[in-house]
Amino acid sequence: MNRTREAKEPHSPFAGLLDAIKLRIAEHADLRPEEPIDDAISKLADITSMQTHDLVVKGLPVALARDVTATYEIVSRNEVLQTIGVSERTLQRGKHSDLALDSNASDRLIRLVVVTEHAIDVFGSKDAAERWLVTPALGIDGRKPLDLLRTSEGTELVKSFLTRIDYGVYS
């Protein structure tokens, strides 16, 4: 296991997003009462696949995309927007409304946050995780992990690569 786990940050930098998503799930808990909304959920990766599906189909608020974009410090705003698949104009239009992202952008937003949380766990800090996201890596054909998050297949490659790094298997 990776020794940097000891230096792990105390909470997710996406706590606001997680709270908003928990609230959104709770609003629809009557639809799926068998899926409890547990306060022990500390990362987006902790929510169930069915809850994630329902969030993506309904669409996440544009305001959450704006909040996530502001959370990144090393990854540029433009890179985050390209990864999510939304324009700056979309963020501006959703500023004073309940405008929702389409299902593709909602899915990509969730994937970005889940992978970033995983990278924070592996590398021990948000800064290290962000640097890794924008640095070409040999284990994924010299591509930047962030660029691969635009598709579900690319996201699976990045997750697998992160797991290999965590266990010390780089090839």
Distance between the termini: 16 Å
Shape: globular
Share of helix among residues? 55-70%
Largest sheet: none
Give a brief description.
One of its GO terms (molecular function) is DNA binding. The chain has helices spanning 15-27, 49-58, 62-71, 77-84, 88-93, 103-123, 126-133, 145-148, 152-167. It is mostly helical.
Descriptive report:
With 171 residues, this protein is mostly helical. It has one domain. It is globular and about 45 Å long. The N terminus is likely disordered. GO terms for molecular function: DNA binding. Pfam families: Xre-like-HTH, Xre_MbcA_ParS_C.
Describe the structure using short key phrases:
single chain; 171 residues; mainly alpha; 9 helices; globular; disordered N terminus
Secondary-structure topology with pairs:
Blueprint: H1 15-27, H2 49-58, H3 62-71, H4 77-84, H5 88-93, H6 103-123, H7 126-133, H8 145-148, H9 152-167
Helix pairs in contact: 2-6, 6-7, 6-9
